[in-house]
Amino acid sequence: MSETMTAAAARRTALAAQGFADARPSGPPTRRHLAKVLSRVQLLQLDSVNVAVRAHYMPVFSRLGAYDPALVDDAAWTHSLRKPRLLVEYWAHEASLIPVADWPLLRWRMRRYEHRYIHHLERMTAKAPGLIDDVLAAVKELGPVGAGTLETALGSSTPKVKGGWWNRSDVKHACEWLFAVGELTTGTRRGFQRLYDLPERVLPPEVLGAAPVSDEEAARQLMLRAAVAHGVGTEKDLRDYYRLQPARSHQAVAELVEEGLLEAVSVQGWRHQAYRHADARIPRKVTGRALLCPFDPLIWERDRTERMFGFRYRIEIYVPEPKRVHGYYVFPFLLDGDLVARVDLKADRANGALLVQGAFAEPGVDTARVAGELMAELRTMAGWLELDEVRVGVKGDLAAAMRTR
């Protein structure tokens, strides 16, 4: 019979796995601290929304406190003998920064994209014969390089149009297809613009030339990494971390349990079988505070967030403003192991302020204490973002208490 865990123990296990049971560094965070965060979360999701802060920077702040964003930039987009590149971009959970060493584990996805989008490729090459080869040759000559520069270099007659992916030029489509199948990667970024380069100029030879990994072994390794990041979770929880196919993930879980790397457990209140990493830590207590962006790996699987914390959370970016419940870009607030509040944040960089456009307490919390702790963390965040102050609006049942802090 499998061991039974209380829901509280499962929650503490998950928080420890994500690094929230560790004290923040007493001094300025270093590359060593970043590496420890990465060893726990396994990947950082990328997202274009910049209303408060880019998604890939925030999870590091949530765990380490104020740090120099150049730590992440250097790890992701630069390389030197003294500071080797730690991260590379690819599709993992979504568009993500993953450890360089994990790139071969996603070769199966590159092959799948090549097969899935073969008709798209055929239409593209029928419309623009030789475009793929021309793009690769231009990147080899000019890279790292953006799609706009490539359009100019290749003499593209397609106008650049702002908007969604459906308005991208043929050159941009070609670049994204080559990125998806692994023939291009991100050499660096300028602002948030991806500059494409050849994998052999980004990845070390031992990674680029690594022996092929079978689809089954890749799924096993990715599910194991997901288990490290979760501490404890259902098969579906673990599968979602890298968006794996159910057939592969079910087989991987069975193998990992047989090997003793995962332990089947029952969690009180959970409907489905859970699996705990064999080395997962179950702290007696979790203390501290953190603001979590919508793309933090602790909460990005919304059903798990509700099951784990009793916290119903939905991102409302695409909801018309009159129908939003909590706001456009809402950060849950973690305090001593529980999600106790949520705030709609915006960085008003022109006026040097972090705007709290809405602040909402969860039922039953000590509102005065939550307001004080939340304001303290918001001031830390504002300082990290080089903003002068925190301005609290009137929306939400927590706002009035926060304005007095």
Note down, in words, how this protein is organized.
- The protein is an alpha+beta fold and 405 residues long.
- Helices cover 39% and strands 18% of the residues.
- The protein is built from 16 helices and 14 strands.
- The strands form four sheets. Strands 10-11-12-13-14 form a five-stranded mixed sheet.
- β11 (330-335) and β12 form a beta hairpin.
- The protein is globular and about 65 Å long.
- It starts with a strand and ends with a helix.
- The model is unreliable at 157-167 (pLDDT under 50).
Short description:
This protein has helices spanning 7-17, 31-41, 58-64, 70-77, 107-116, 118-127, 131-142, 147-153, 170-180, 205-208, 215-230, 235-241, 246-258, 302-309, 367-384, 399-403, and strands spanning 3-5, 44-45, 87-91, 95-99, 185-190, 193-197, 232-234, 262-267, 274-277, 289-291, 330-335, 338-348, 353-361, 389-392.
| Uncertain parts | 157-167
Q: How far apart, in Å, are the first and last alpha carbons?
A: 51 Å
Chain-averaged pLDDT: 94
In one word, what is the shape?
A: globular
What is the number of E strands? 14
H and E order: EHHEHHEEHHHHHEEHHEHHEEEHEEEHEH
Proportion in helices: 25-40%
Biggest pleated-sheet summary: 5 strands, mixed
- The helix count comes to 16
Q: Report the radius of gyration as a whole number of Å.
A: 22 Å
What oligomeric state do the depicted chains represent?
Answer: single chain
Global structural class = alpha+beta
Strand residues, percent: 15-25%
Strand order within the widest beta sheet: 10-11-12-13-14
